[in-house]
Design brief:
Helix content is 54%, strand content 19%. By secondary structure, it is an alpha+beta fold. Strands 1, 3, 4, 5, 6, 7, 8, 9, 10, 12 and 13 form an eleven-stranded mixed beta sheet that branches. A two-stranded antiparallel ribbon has the order 2-11. Helix 10 crosses helix 12. The longest helix has 42 residues.
């Protein structure tokens, strides 16, 4: 009997009504679902593109993994342990880093930033050539620094400007007395390079060599803030942590690039959820057209249903028929919307006809399988509910069948 119900529903969906207005209402329901589905897919794909584009900057700046002390702010690692880490098959490069907050002064302009003291192996972990835009990288035996474009704009500093030095101030780690009149120590430094990653990062970090940072922050020998690692693709974090703990023989934790940017990831997930919720609401509103179209189709087929009832059609059967009609409207409109949305996304990736406002940069879009499944599930879930609710609230037909 289910096959008969479906065949009748198929005929009702594809056959033209004698009344033009009913055909137009049915076509409008399909068209509205098409536009809503297409919009949802495009927006989710555009957000995925923006997310990937935004993270591409931090992916350049941040390592694959970061080894930190589980307790405290410093980790002890000698040169023998570092060499053992480098010999692990999962690791390509290891760099020791000291990072602390400092106060910057340049020609009566001030700014607070984080100073990262890095060793000579830093370029084996982070592609320096990809972030350095002007000047040169820091030399191992100097107090020179590389600053971001954001810090340079705030302070008015430039590369190789020896008329005025950048003053770097940090609290003394060995200041044990509250009556110490000089709790801070300062060093002059020259800017030898500018890097550019993103607006937030460019205002947050400056780079110098490890020995200068160790002297400024009074770190003991072989002590660092953390180690940065470049690993082989698809390296397992838990396996790597066990091997690192065995070599260092200390309580450590390892953070992946995703965990390092956990705040950014949470923010993007929240924004993605908000965008999805808004456009899902638009899709739900669009499905009101489906309910209206179903009611009009039911009224149009009322006389035919009486004939079908006379030859043995049960009351439950006509509800199934129009439920299938609603599902067919949802399916045709949704699939058409997915095809149209996918085509627009493909054209944008190929021809870049939509630009980011105020720039010549093409708006990034990525058609992900996950987003496609989200759209399909959302569409058919709410479409099925709309069809079910509509066909279960046509009690006026029951009276017609009984009469």
């Amino acid at each position: 009997m289910m096959n008969v119900d479906y065949k009748i529903a198929w005929r009702y969906f594809f056959s033209k009504s004698n009344q033009t207005v009913i055909n137009r209402i049915s076509n409008l329901a399909v068209f509205v679902i098409l536009i809503a589905t297409c919009s949802l897919l495009i927006v989710l794909s555009a957000f995925s593109g923006l997310k990937d584009f935004g993270l591409s900057f931090s992916n350049i700046f941040d390592p694959d993994f970061r080894i930190l002390p589980n307790k405290g702010k410093q980790i002890y690692v000698d040169s023998i342990s570092i060499n053992k880490l480098k010999s692990l098959p999962e690791i390509i490069g290891v760099s020791s880093v000291i990072e602390e907050k400092v106060f910057l002064s340049f020609e009566e302009k001030n700014h607070v930033a984080f100073l990262k003291g890095v060793d000579k192996n830093f370029d084996s972990v982070i592609p320096i050539d990809s972030i350095l835009t002007i000047g040169e990288w820091i030399s191992p035996a100097s107090s020179s620094v590389v600053i971001g474009y954001g810090i340079a704009n705030i302070l008015g500093a430039s590369v190789y400007d020896y008329s005025s030095f950048l003053k770097i101030t940090a609290p003394k780690a060995s200041s044990a007395s509250l009556i110490n009149r000089k709790p801070f120590k300062s060093f002059p430094s020259s800017v030898v390079g500018l890097y550019q990653v993103s607006e937030d990062i460019d205002k947050k970090y400056i780079f110098t060599n490890l020995s200068f940072a160790k002297n400024l922050f009074e770190f003991n020998p072989n002590t660092f803030s953390y180690l940065e690692i470049k690993s082989q693709p698809n390296s397992n974090k838990s396996v790597l942590q066990k091997k690192v703990e065995k070599i260092l023989n200390t309580d450590i934790k390892i953070k992946s690039r995703t965990e390092i940017n956990q705040a950014v990831q949470k923010m993007m997930k929240t924004e993605n959820l908000a965008v999805y919720s808004i456009f899902t609401l638009i899709l739900i509103v669009a499905l009101f057209n489906l309910s209206g179209a179903l009611l009009i189709i039911i009224l149009d087929k009322k006389r035919q249903l009486k004939i079908l009832s006379a030859i043995g059609l049960k009351k439950l059967a006509y509800r199934k028929i129009f439920f299938y009609v609603g599902c067919l409207i949802t399916f045709v409109g949704g699939v058409s919307g997915i095809i149209l949305g996918s085509l627009i996304i493909f054209l944008q990736k190929q021809f870049h006809f939509i630009k980011v406002p105020g720039t010549e940069l093409a708006y990034p879009v990525i058609l992900e399988f996950e987003n496609l499944m989200v759209v399909v599930f959302t569409l058919f879930f709410f479409g099925s509910i709309a069809s079910f609710v509509t066909v279960n609230n046509i009690s006026f037909l029951d009276k017609s069948f009984d009469s």
